[in-house]
Design a protein that fits this description.
single chain, 448 residues, alpha/beta, Urease, subunit C, domain 1, TIM Barrel, 9-stranded mixed sheet, 17 strands, globular, binds (4S)-2,6-dioxohexahydropyrimidine-4-carboxylic acid
Length: 448
């Protein structure tokens, strides 16, 4: 232990937990937190602190980073806002979120981007960053937008989803790839194919079972093929969001030099047609949940490390809106609060290890987006920590969800493994399911 440390009275000492450390090590050690940072790791039994939390028998991982949420503010705050969204985040052990630009108005100019940071500064329970939205009209502003302190990168919707943001053509996408210097995250569904399929199905009486047929695998695969070609041409790395097909896993396995990618817990958990039978439009999202062969392909992608990140794509719509009949029902479901519980349940089932999970929701987000000072339990890193009880059984219910759209596709699901404490910048913001009223979030900083 450092000599100087004997002088310190820590803000918090986490005592006796099993720490998930870098280099695939788990060690039973104490953590001393001071001034928002991890200041000591070791035997701190002789040290003092304002608060000592005995976490014997619990596991500590770096705070989880959810790199894809839609918190809907401004413009759609009847569905969600930054306050409720970030409350759900910390309730589920997430300490940092990256938020998407398809709000109203969309985040396509500096004024709108700045506005989101101002709202978050006053309201966010956890750390925050916002994407700049790319449109065909703002290509010349992309550099300025993405350079705004705290902006995580640029989002391109190549297929239309909730909202009007859309850049469907190769020429514009290539231009954006060439001007941008930060990470570009892409919703990869081919708009031309989506339009064609919608037309082909327009005479039919539709139900949600048609959703994965209309937005078919070809829509996703052909877009990802085009995108990879453009990324190579521009020599620019890209990040493909919410992968839904086994074919894209195969494609991406051969393009690791230029592309990283994400999967959502819901694409790992649900299968078609069962999910549509059980949940109807409440399991409708873009890209759609597909059949078992694709689900298995995604799991293969995870185990072979083709998939780099797990993001929730938390995309709330109210129960009333989701109850509309297809295709008037909107796409998307809540997810930020259930991301870790669902994945910890998979850890307990032996589908991935706790080290895999830490790589997917802590280490890789930091690498891909060049996040500063997060993602590891290490001295002088930000004290963002998620304490989990791998043995605790819990039933997920709609009631438990903090989102303004108070529902989850996992309502009634019994799981094993759940976050029990969430620490954001050295402040305890969630303790045993109680949210401590603490707007502890700060803007995320990036290495340029
Ligand atoms: O299902 C989805 N809903 N997919 C998206 O990419 C957007 C999201 C939303 O914002 O509702």
């Amino acid at each position: 232990m450092h000599e100087k440390i004997n002088m310190i009275n820590f803000d918090i000492i986490l005592k006796g937990g099993e720490l998930v450390l870098p280099n695939k090590k788990i060690d039973k050690l104490d953590v001393g937190i001071s001034n928002c940072l991890i200041k000591e790791i070791g035997d701190l039994s002789k040290m003092s602190a304002d608060k000592i939390i005995d976490i014997t028998g619990l596991t500590v991982m770096p705070g989880a980073i959810d790199t894809q949420v839609h918190f809907r503010e401004p413009g759609l705050t009847h569905k969600e806002d930054i306050k409720h969204g970030s409350k759900g985040a910390v309730a589920g052990g997430v300490t940092t979120f990256f938020e998407m630009p398809n709000t109203i108005p969309p985040t396509t100019c500096l004024r709108e981007l700045e506005k989101k940071f101002q709202i978050a500064e006053k309201n966010s329970f956890c750390n925050y960053s916002f994407f700049a939205g790319a449109s065909k009209e703002n290509i010349h502003e992309i550099r300025e937008l993405e350079s705004f302190t705290g902006c995580c990168g640029v989002k391109i919707f190549m297929g239309s989803s909730t909202g009007d943001l859309l850049v469907e053509d190769d020429k514009s996408v290539l231009e954006i790839l060439k001007v941008s210097k930060k990470m570009i995250a892409v919703h990869s569904e081919d708009e031309y194919r989506l339009r064609l399929r919608a037309k082909e199905f327009s005479e039919n009486k539709l139900s949600v079972f048609n959703h994965p047929e209309i937005r078919d695998t070809t829509s996703a695969v052909s877009c990802t093929k085009r995108l990879l070609k453009l990324a190579h041409e521009a020599k620019k790395k890209i990040h493909i969001l919410h992968l839904s097909t086994k074919d894209e896993v195969e494609l991406l396995a051969n393009n690791k030099d230029i592309a990283t990618c994400e999967v959502t817990p819901q694409h790992l958990f649900f299968n078609s047609p069962e999910c549509y039978k059980k949940l109807g439009t409440f399991s409708q999202m873009n890209p759609p949940i597909r059949d078992k062969t694709h689900n298995l392909g995604l799991w293969d992608g995870l185990s072979q490390k083709v998939i780099d990140v797990i993001g929730s794509d938390h995309a709330p719509h109210t129960i009333q809106e989701k109850n509309k009949s297809y295709p008037d029902s909107p796409s998307g479901m809540t997810g930020v609060q259930t991301l870790l519980p669902i994945m910890l349940n998979f850890v307990n089932k032996g589908k991935l290890s706790i080290f895999d999970l830490v790589r997917l929701v802590c280490e890789n987000p930091c690498k891909i987006y060049s996040i500063m000072n997060k993602g590891k339990i290490e001295i002088d890193y930000d004290a963002d920590l998620t304490v989990i009880d791998l043995n605790k059984e819990f039933t997920i219910t709609n009631d438990w969800i903090h989102s303004k759209s108070k529902w989850t596709p996992y309502d009634g699901l019994k799981i094993k493994g759940i976050p029990v404490f969430t620490i954001v910048n050295g402040k305890l913001v969630m303790e045993e399911n109680q949210i401590i009223d603490e707007v502890a979030g700060k803007k995320v900083l990036f290495k340029d």
